[in-house]
Specification:
InterPro entries: Na-dicarboxylate_symporter (IPR001991), Na:dicarbo_symporter_sf (IPR036458). The chain is mainly alpha-helical. It has 21 helices and no strands. Helices cover 77% and strands 0% of the residues. The longest helix is centred in the N-terminal third of the chain and has 39 residues.
């Protein structure tokens, strides 16, 4: 009977995949297909748990097969990170018209990303205090215990590194090894190497324009090919999201969800407050938040459903240039840097909240100015190198908790609600990178007001 049930579940899963494919064949909008996959996953996963139980034999075996689609999609997204960063950052340098703009663009982008990360850390701390989560204890089930064991193994990689050692670890010593993502800091290492290549290109462009032009053509062609690969992968999003949501709902411990409900609310409250701050930044640079949101909604929706800053990068850059009037160099810099530096949700709010929750358990006064300033600084520095696909928030939290000499078990205790919070965190990460692009373009006075104020200049994802 169990085998028959498993087969029926898998046949229903395949039927939904076929339905999503038929929607694609009929050219239904990409965002509609993604949200359909999201909703179908919630319903299908919920029914699996309701009928067979989260730990039942049918659920466990069926999810192991369904996970091929979900984890396969995640792995394809991870495959894109390094090539995207490499071609996007070098492409940003090839699009800069004068060396003078290079300094202004990089400074304004990095300042925006890092300053907002520091603020987001403060918001995260404030949310914990507001909801009285400091010193809170959470239920530990089987899944949480297994997760804690995994976290303990992962933390060993960064536990013995001081902040200065972490900074040195950002510097690449083998570019090809970092392209293979062999280290936890490989992402930022590729960013740094790509920046060196870009700076070298700008130097050659003055002394040897012919070779520089040839190199630019090669990079333009490579950029086009990588973006085509991105398109092929993103077409899988409705199927991947359906599988991932099915697994999440089918295997989640709903008792744990209830137990962690306050933490989820506190996280979303912090994310919403930080999103409002983003809008205030736009207002300060004379950009209408309403006009911005109309243009940014497609890419933010994709980031929310896909939980991938890397997957959203092409749409991010295209939205900035074609809908928001941002110059190409600022868009490429902010989009690419935003994948690995200063992610407000994953590297700002999340680790700051965890640190503030556990700090009282080891006798730390979370209201102490010294603690608040130290945590803000540690979070900001540790925000370098967080990858743009699921898992980056965990790594950021481990670094921060390790640097502050705080217990790391809390990272594993939140496994039940991690996907729910990660959707909003990813959207905030992408929004921050777009804000950085708008600010940079305004600073160098290249923001195209006509494009920004044109209601018809809206980019939609056609995958």
């Amino acid at each position: 009977m169990t085998v028959v049930s498993i087969i029926l579940v898998l046949l229903l899963f395949i039927a939904v995949l076929f339905g999503l494919w038929k929607m694609q064949a009929k050219h239904v909008k990409f965002s509609t297909r993604v949200f359909t996959g999201l909703g179908a996953g919630v319903v299908f996963g919920g029914l699996l748990q309701l009928i067979f139980g989260a730990d039942g034999a049918v659920t466990t075996e069926a999810i192991s097969w369904i996970n091929i689609v979900g984890q396969g999609y995640v792995r394809f997204l991870q495959m894109l990170i390094m090539p995207l960063i490499f071609v996007s950052i070098i492409g940003a340098f090839t699009k800069i018209e004068t060396n003078k703009n290079l300094g202004k663009i990089s400074t304004s982008v990095l300042t925006t990303l890092l300053a907002t990360t520091a603020v987001s850390a403060l918001i995260g701390m404030g949310s914990v205090m507001l909801f009285n989560l400091d010193g809170a204890e959470f239920v530990q089930g089987t899944a949480e215990t297994e997760r804690i064991e995994q976290i303990t193994e992962t933390s060993a990689q960064v536990a013995d590194l001081s902040i200065p050692e972490q900074i040195v670890n950002f510097i690449p010593n083998n570019f090809f090894a970092d392209l293979a993502d062999s280290r936890d800091t490989s992402t930022i290492a590729v960013v740094i190497f790509s920046a060196f290549v870009g700076i070298a290109y700008m130097g050659i462009s003055r002394k040897d324009p012919e070779n520089a032009s040839f190199f630019k053509k090669i990079m333009d062609s490579l950029y086009t090919i990588v973006m085509r690969i991105v398109t092929l992968v993103l077409r899988l999003s409705p199927y991947g999201i359906f599988a991932l949501m099915t697994k999440m709902l089918a295997t989640s411990d709903f008792n744990a969800l209830v137990n962690l409900g306050v933490f989820v609310i506190a996280s979303y409250a912090a994310i919403i407050v930080m999103f409002i701050i983003h809008m205030l930044i736009l207002t300060g640079f004379k950009v209408s938040p309403i006009a911005y949101l109309k243009k940014a909604l497609p890419v933010l929706s994709f980031a929310f459903t896909s939980r991938s800053s890397a997957g959203a990068l092409p749409l991010n850059i295209e939205t900035q240039t074609k809908a928001l009037g941002v110059d190409s160099a600022s868009a490429n810099f902010s989009g690419s840097f935003g994948l690995s530096i200063g992610q407000n949700g994953c590297a700002g709010i999340y680790p700051a909240m965890l640190a503030t929750i556990v700090a009282p358990t080891v006798g730390i006064d979370i209201f102490s100015p010294a603690y608040i300033l130290t945590l803000m600084a540690v979070v900001t520095i540790s925000s370098f190198g967080v990858a743009g696909v699921g898992g980056g928030a965990t790594f950021a939290a481990l670094i921060v908790l390790g640097a502050m000499d705080l217990p790391i078990a809390i990272v594993g205790l939140l496994i039940s609600v991690e996907p729910i919070i990660d959707m909003a965190r990813t959207m905030l990460n992408v929004n921050d990178s777009m804000i950085a692009g708008v600010v940079s373009s305004r600073v160098i006075k290249t923001l195209d007001e006509d494009v920004l104020n044109n209601d018809e200049a809206i980019v939609t994802s056609e995958y």
